[in-house]
Amino acid sequence: MLTAAKSLGSVAAISMGLGLYARQSSALPAYAIRPPGALNEQDFLSACIRCGMCVRDCPFDTLQLARFADHVVTGTPYFIARQIACEMCDDIPCVKACPSGALDHQLSDINEARMGLAVVIDQENCIAFHGLRCEICYNVCPLREEAITLELQHNPRTAKHAMFIPRVHSDACTGCGKCEQACILQQAAIKVLPIKLAKADAGGHYRMGWEEKKKSGKSLVTPDATHQFNLPQGVEYDYQSGKIQNEEGAGTEVKP
Amino acid sequence: MHRLAKNKWLLARRGTQLGILALFMLGPWFGLWLVKGNLSFSLTADTLPLTDPYVLLQSMVAGHWPETIAISGALIVGIAYLLLGRVYCSWVCPLNMLTDFASWLRNRLGVKAGSYVSRDMRYWLLLATLVLPVISGVMVWELVNPVSLLHRGLLFGISAGWLIIAMVFVVDLLVSRRAWCGHICPMGAFYSLLGKWALVRVSAKRREACNDCMDCFAVCPEPQVIKPALKGAKNGLGPLIMDADCTNCARCLDVCSKDVFEFSTRFNNTADSA
To answer: pTM for the full model?
Structure first.
C-alpha cells in the first residue's frame, strides 16, 4: 500500500513537471518555420511522431529536427529561413514522406503552402527606403509579382528619382523564406514571421465604405448634404435632420 | 572460444542491437538509404513501414488520427511483439546497451547503495504518459523520452540530449540497480503489456538440475520473474517464465552452468513438462 502510494506520488510529481515543461516548450519561436503543410502548432505537436522522414526526403537539407534543449519541441522538424530557405519543390517530398499527417497530405500545390508570412520588418534599414536599387527579395521570390511586388514612390531626398519599395501580399506569400535568406543586409530587413504574429485583424465590424458602396450599389450612410451656408459662430448645420440650429438646439428648417 | 560460446545469446543480442543501429546508420554515414527514419517510424527499402506503437498511441490519445501508413507500421510491429514478448527492450532498444553497461559497472565497482523504487512505478508512469496527452493535447513523454531521444539523436544529432542519457546512466550506476529499464521506463511497461501473452517464452525446462548457485538471479534484469518458474514445481507451477516483465534477453540461458533454461513456447507449461 505504502509502495503504491510512493510510486503514485513520484509519478504525480513527474507528471506535474512534464506538464509544466510541455506548456513552456510548446511555444514555437518566431525564427523557426515548420515545413509546408504543417498543421497549426497545437495539432502539429499532437500529430508529429518525430521520425524525421521529412528531413530525409528534403532534397535541399532545409529541414532539421529540433534537438533537446533547443527552443523548438524535441525531435520536431523546422527550418531557419536565413540559413536555408524552403525551395518549394513542386512534388512536395517532405509532405509525401510524412507518415503521421502532421504535414497535411491535402496540400498538393506548393503555392498553397502557408509556412509563414514575409514582412519588410525594418523599413529604416531596408536600403530600398533610402532610394537605393536592391530588389533582391523581389527577384528571388518564387512568386515574383504575386507575393512580392515593387511599388514606385517619389524620392524626396533627390526629388527626381523613384524609390522601388518591396511590398508583400499575404494572399500569395507561402513563407518559403527565400527573400529573408537573400536579403543583402547583415541582418535581414525582410523576415518570415508566423502568420499569427505578422497579420493584423481589423475585426468583423470594420468595413471599408467604398467597398460596401460597390457591393450594394449605393452608399450605406446618409450622403453629405451639399454645402450651402457660411454660418455665424454658435450656429451649426445638422446633417441628419437638415436643420440649422443654434446652441440651445432650437432648429429652423432649411429649404435647399 | 569457450568464453564466446558461453555468452552466445548475449553476443546475438548485441549483434542484433548494433545491427539494427547500423542499418539506420547506413544512410547518414554512407548515403545508403536502405532504412529511413528512426525507431519511431521507419521505411525500409521504400516499402516496409515500421511504427513504434507506443509513440503512435501517444499521438492518438493526444487527439490525432494518423495516416494509414503509420497505422500499418504499428500493426506490423505490434503483432511481432505480441508473438515475441518484450524483446524490444533487450534486442532492439539502443539505450539497453548503456543500462546493461551501467549495471555491469555497478557490480564491478561494488556499488551497494540504492534507493528503493517500486517496479510498478513504470506502469503508473505509462498511465500518466497516456492520460496527460488527453488533457494537454501534447505528447508530453516524447519531450523527454530517452529511448526515442537517443536513437533519433544518433541519427539526426543529439547536442544537449546527452544530458538525459547521462542522467539515466548515472541513476542506474549509483542511485538504484536497473532503475531505468526495470522500474521507470514507461515504454518498457508498454511492451510488457503488449507481450503479456507472447508465444515465445523462456522455460526452466531442466529445473530439477538447478544447484541454487543464483547466477541467473544475479544477471537477470528482472530477477523477480524467474522464481515462479524455477522454484514453482512444488506449487504445481509450470517451468515457463510467464511474467510479462521478462524481456526474453536470454542471459539466464548463457550463465546457467546446468543448462536449466531454454527458449520454448507458452504451450509447454504443464508442471510435468519440466
So the answer is: 0.86
